[in-house]
Amino acid sequence: MSEYRFMTLARHIIEGERKHPEATGELSKLLSDLSLAAKVISLEVNKAGLVDILGFTGHNNIHGEKVKKLDMFAHDMLLRAMEYGGHLCVMASEEEEDIIHISPHYKVGKYVLLFDPLDGSSNIDVNISIGTIFSIYKRISAEGKPGLIEDCLQQGIKQIAAGYVVYGSSTILVYTTGEGVHGFTLDPSFGEFLLSHEKIRTPKKSRIYSINEGNYLYWHPGLKKFIKYLQEEDENSGRPYSSRYIGSMVADIHRNLLYGGIFMYPSDSRNPKGKLRLMYECNPMAFIVEAAGGMATNGKQRILEIQPESLHERTPIFIGSQAEVKTVMDFMAKEEVNNEAYISNKI
Predict the structure, then answer these.
(1) 2 lies in a domain?
(2) How far is Cα 17 from Cα 114, in angstroms, rounded to an integer?
(3) Where residue 291 sits, what CATH number does that domain have?
(4) Orientation angle between helical segments 221-231 and 322-346, nearest 10 degrees
């Protein structure tokens, strides 16, 4: 019988902290609170077709997008689960315009939590996998006082933990503290996350790419050439590649994390800054993928090294297996050089 047959998430976190004598146990409690919220959200997602929870609230979020009822349920559940523990000084959510202060009724802690309560929520009504993404930092403002926006606007490289939960055919929580990536599947029979994917390593090369090809017309010329390159037949390099696009970032990246592949949400002529949020989606996913041996870039710069300027900043992202991420960067850089040479000749 496997040693990890009954390794629960709580036990795994505690055993990880034992390797660090300076650990106080606060992070393990924070992650346990997150797992509790994930269990409750999972229950609601799984019965979404049976109760009056689907559909729109009638309101828009700060991005002008319609907010669904389940989005707000997940958002509120995370707030309720995380606020009382005394581990956080401030939170920020994709669904809130400003930072979320901890109630004066609760103790203020030393950690910062950023989260996307329900990624891929446009897929709720058609029963496609969706997920929760979270990111944890240590505060940089004075301890003992309410957190500030500066605590939230830290580079992704300063994360101390990040993770996501996929609500699909099963509910899986994946997390890292920067030292290995581990996945836990929720056993509904007794309500515990059990270790199911230990020390995940994403393959360095693959034959899968994920991108919304409906936006092809508006892409960077180098990206267009890269996609055509992937579609060409070449036995030596393993081409053509297979296109696998779910339309839910957390689901696409979870698959690629396990099987290898590249997920791309680029900028285009209509969205020059990209569409995905740096703080709530790209930074935590980049932290996880890099810890599993992959790469994440905006096409020019490592995602984790971007200095955010606002809570809801957007960025292009190319994330996944090293070989494919490096190749798309080469294609785009080469096209930039060709364009500069063309302009110089015209002058």
Answers:
(1) no
(2) 22
(3) 3.40.190.80
(4) 130
